[in-house]
Structure formats: C-alpha cells, structure tokens
Amino acid sequence: MATPTEPTRTEPGYTLWQLVLYALKLGTIGFGGPVALVGYMHRDLVVDRKWISDADYKEGLTLSQLMPGPLAAQLMIYLGYVHYGNPGATLAGIAFVVPSFLMVVGIGAAYLEYGGITWMQAVFYGVGACVIGIIAISAYKLTTRTVGKDKLLWAIFAAGAALTIVTESEWVLLFLAAGILVWLVRAPPKRWARTNRMNGMAAAALVPVSAAVFVPVTADWQVLAKIGLFFTEAGAFVFGSGLAIVPFLYGGVVNEYQWLNERQFVDAVAVAMITPGPVVITVGFIGYLVAGFPGAVVASLATFLPCYFFTIIPAPYFKKHGKHPGVVAFVDGVTAAAIGTIAGAVVVLGKRSIIDLPTLLFALVTVIVLIKFKKLTEPPVVAAAAALGLAVYPFVKG
Questions:
Q1: With left for phi above 0 and alpha for psi between -120 and 50, is residue 278 left, alpha or beta?
Q2: What is this structure's pTM?
Q3: Which one, of 87, 145, 95, lies nearest residue 315 by Cα?
Q4: Do residues 187 and 264 share a domain?
Q5: What percent of the chain has pLDDT over 90?
Q6: In the structure, what pLDDT confidence band is assigned to residue 116 with cuts at 50, 70 and 90?
Q7: Domain co-membership, 95 together with 24
Q8: Domain-embedded: residue 3
Q9: What mean pLDDT comes out for the span 112-134?
Q10: Of 308, 334, 365, which closes a domain?
Q11: Which of 12, 45, 116, 272 is deepest in the core (most CB within 10 A)?
C-alpha cells in the first residue's frame, strides 16, 4: 500500500526554531496538566500568534484523542508536523518533554537523598487548587472558541462532560461515536462514497508500533528491560489524557512488580502535578526511583515513543484528507466530545483538589486574578499558590 505523499504546505509565518523554543518554554513553565496545556497551545499558536490554523489545531486534537498516549505531548508533536513534517514533530516533541523530565529527575535525586519530600503535600495543597482555576479558564475559552453556537456540537459537548464527571474517565468510543454522528448529519456517505478507500488507509495507520529503547550506560539490564516493556504498554495501550495512566501505573509499579510502595507512588503523582509540562512525566520520576537515571530515561522513552509514532504515522492521512467535508464533520464531532471531556475533567480534578474553604478560595482567586489581569501569565500565580500552600497547610492539618 502506497504511503500518501507529503501534503503541500503553505508558507508558515514562523521558523522551525521559533516553534521549538515555544515548545521548550511551554514544557518549562506550562502548569496545569493536559487540560491547561492544550488550552495554552490554542491560545498562543492559534489565537495570538496565528502560526497554526484552527482547522489544523482541531485535526491535531482529534488525532490526539483517538490515539493512546499523553494528550498534550501528542498535540505538540502534531502541531510541529503541520508545517515542518517529521523533523518539526520530532524537535517540538523533544523540546516539550525534556524540561519536565530534567525537573523530575532532579526531584527524584533529592527524594532519595533526603528520604521523601515532606513539603510536597503543602505545595500541592496550594498548587492543586490554583491549577483547577487555570484549567477552568482554559476549558471555558476552548469551549467558546471551538463549539460555537452549533446545537449538535453543544449536545455532544454536554454528553462528553457528563460522562466524564459520572465515570471519572475518558471513553475513546465516545469520541468515535461523536465524529460518526456529525459526519452522518453533515456529510452523509452518498456525498463522498468515492473516497471510501481512505478508510483502509487510515485503519492501516492505526496499527500499533513497537519501539526499542537503548540506554548506553552500565545498568541492571534485566530491570531496565522490565521497565521498558511495562512503560511501553502504558504508552501504547492507555487512552485518555494525563491522569488516565495513573491506575495502570499503580497496578504494575505497586502491585505487580512492587518497585514502589503506596506512599512513594502517591509522591510520584504529586511530583508530576506540581511540575510543569505533561503529567505523564511522572514515569520519569518512577523510573529514577527504581533504577536511577537509566531507569528514568528508559521509562520516559518507552512511554513517549509509542505516542510519537501514533501521531506521525496517521498525520499524513489527516493532512491529505483533512479538508474533505466528511472528515471536517468527523473532526468537529470528535473535537466537541474532547472539549466536553476536558470540561468534565475540571469537575473531576476539582473534587480531589478543592477539599476545604482555603482551597476553594485559592481556585476562585486564581480565576478572578487571571480574568482581571489579562497580561498576567500563569507561572507567577502558581508560584504564589505554592507559597500560600506552604504557609497555610500546617495550620489546616495541624
């Protein structure tokens, strides 16, 4: 079967290195997890800088929701692909992930040296509530800009939000059903029956891809092999953004292999939540605790390589056929469901982070401050919340 030719790209209004620097910056200061990160990308690249078209962004979000793996990293990879192909996807993806990887490795070293991080609960007490305010604003902006006034899309949005709130999980079947529904309503098969052969090509693009992981250092190769295999499964077969991978990790890391105890695992998740970049980078922290720096490298590569291939392999098909009315309708349906899921995730995460009056106030003040001071960026707000958490938490839990 022939691979589709590279799509003809319009001349971008930015250089590859400008995009790489943006990905590096977002990976360094982008707090809030996948819900906030996909919102930042839309705000910065689509609305403010106009580097990426809204259609390309929706295609990337759709592909990221339909494929297993971390949502924000896949979206960044796809946006890198839009104008600069595989080199752009590769460099943007690396730049996005590396800053948070280095942070969690550093925290992991301190964690082992000092026998735990007692201040982490206090920091997360403030940051967790602040992040809820950040992602609430991101979800609102994404909703108003992508769903618009379309009643069908609003119905799909509401269904996605409700299902996420009730089940506290993301359902890939919902995304598929939403896309098919809008396709059938807006562009019935009779209008594009001649392009049915695309289905076979798209299906071929979704075949799982395996990737070997190589670390050129002296290490316990048996342990590294187990880490590589387990985290490859996590990256290749777990759908949903951010925290969706946590139950899978818990089952393997704590129960099956007993690499970490429950306290260490909770600390690993907390590290991912209080550091910028993709939440899934918790795998780097876990890998470090299990097998040092080689373990961190293997765990991270094994988790992120599948999502890289799951993005760049279907990307040419999305670019080649993405403007077809039937595909546009499918993408709109999946996008509405995805945004609904993101909105529902605000409620789900809020129930875990807003646990008393101070955390409620942290979240509300965050929303008010970011709305009133539109030029204020998120990192100073997160830093202030961390400081408040350190100050308030001892009195609340004392």
A1: beta
A2: 0.69
A3: 87
A4: no
A5: 24
A6: low
A7: yes
A8: no
A9: 76
A10: 308
A11: 272
Same domain? 198 vs 70: yes
pLDDT tens, residue by residue, 169-209: 666 678 788 888 888 888 776 644 444 444 433 333 333 33
> What is the CA 68 to chain-centroid distance, rounded?
11
User: Are 276 and 333 in the same domain?
Assistant: no
Residue type, 195: T
Q: Which tokens hold the place of 309?
A: 């291939």
What is the extent of the structural domain holding 242? 221-308
φ/ψ of 115, rounded to 5, equals 70, 40
Alpha-carbon distance of 43 to 32, in angstroms, equals: 15
CA dihedral (388, 262, 168, 288) positive or negative: positive
Contacts of 76 (CB under 8 A, 6+ apart): 23, 26, 41, 92, 93, 96
CA distance 152 to 161: 14
Does the residue 4 lie in any domain? Answer: no
Give the model's pLDDT for residue 22.
97
The whole-angstrom separation of Cα 326 and Cα 267 is 46
What is the Cα 204 distance to its own chain's centre?
Answer: 24
Place of tokens 């988790």: 303
Q: Which of 33, 55, 238 is nearest to 139 (CA)?
A: 33
